[in-house]
Amino acid sequence: PAGGKGEKLLMWFRADLRLHDHPALKYVEQHGSAVLPLFTFDPRQFGKTSFGFAKTGRYRAEFLIEAVDQLRKRLRDIGSDLIIREGKPEEVIVNLCKQNGIRKVVYHREVCFEEQEVEQKLQKALEKGRIEHKALWSNTLYDVEDLPFAVEKMPDVYSKFRDMVKDKGQIREPLPAPKKLPRTIDCESGRLPTLSDLGLGSEPPRKLKAERFTGGEIDAMGRLERYIAEAKRNSGTASSHLGADFSCKISPWLALGCVSPRRIHQELKKRNVVPEVRIARHFLPLEKDTKRSFFPEQISKSTTYFELVWRDFFRFITLKYGASRLRTGTTSAAGTRAQALTSSGIKEQMMSAAH
């Protein structure tokens, strides 16, 4: 606990760049006597794929830099700090632990191949140095422990998954942001890298005609507030497909964990907002049995909750079948099934909008 007895901890931030609804920070708050909050820019994320494409473009990198900078400011506002490094996490973290006498690392689990690969390398390095690690779950609407089934037995079809979690699942209340953390371990805080430092050129990204999004928790909540206000103002009216507010556009912030799915759900629910998404007719199939279109010219459907459930579905299905199978394209039955689910997901999503 802050200021009390506990462990010296390293808090490794990943795709969870926020203070609110943060289980790992809650653990630090409850169990730490001192903490070293860390974000490391992994050079492997700014290289090329095996096909020669950039893993991280300049706009995404700029958004990430902004989100990390905002997280540092948020932590400093509550008397803490964010240590920033460039390097492989499995090397940077172990070195910082050894230099500062830290015996446990706390972080959130991820489900995709490269992230899990980094976790495995880190765990091996920590075990070699006799350093403990605590991996917690976050970044889904439904917590993995609250699903009405074991992950390995989850339905392979989205509609079944959706119906089961809707009827029997439990959505936890989002955790409040900490007002204070254990003292920050004295360490050089480090400099926020530039695009040039990350190998993405020295020129700033060109200005876009569309609305520019800024990374960070504060901007994520501002975007959500704006969407809620627009949804309430236009309730019951046809929404445009163009402009900044025809949809929530919260995905960039969700991807970096600047806002949690549970916080989005909570805000929409307590404001009694039922946002609408319009689905154009030409995207939608015909109903085979009746030989008529399921759909009029446009159909409005309350989808924010269900889009968050879709997001959960793909994270849990990746966890079920194993990220390595999805990445390598294995020909095993499980891998083939998982790949088929991914390719057919959009079609089923369109169909489910009719019901």
Automatic annotation (TrEMBL):
Gene3D superfamilies: 1.25.40.80, HUPs. One of its GO terms (molecular function) is deoxyribodipyrimidine photo-lyase activity. SUPFAM superfamilies: Cryptochrome/photolyase FAD-binding domain, Cryptochrome/photolyase, N-terminal domain. FAD binds at S247, C248, K249, I250, S251, E307, L308, V309, W310, R311, D312, F313, F314. Its cofactor is FAD. Residues 7-141 form the Photolyase/cryptochrome alpha/beta domain. The keyword Flavoprotein applies. Pfam families: DNA_photolyase. Keywords: FAD, Flavoprotein. Binds 1 FAD per subunit. It comes from the Eukaryota. Belongs to the DNA photolyase class-1 family. This is Photolyase/cryptochrome alpha/beta domain-containing protein. It comes from Rhodosorus marinus.
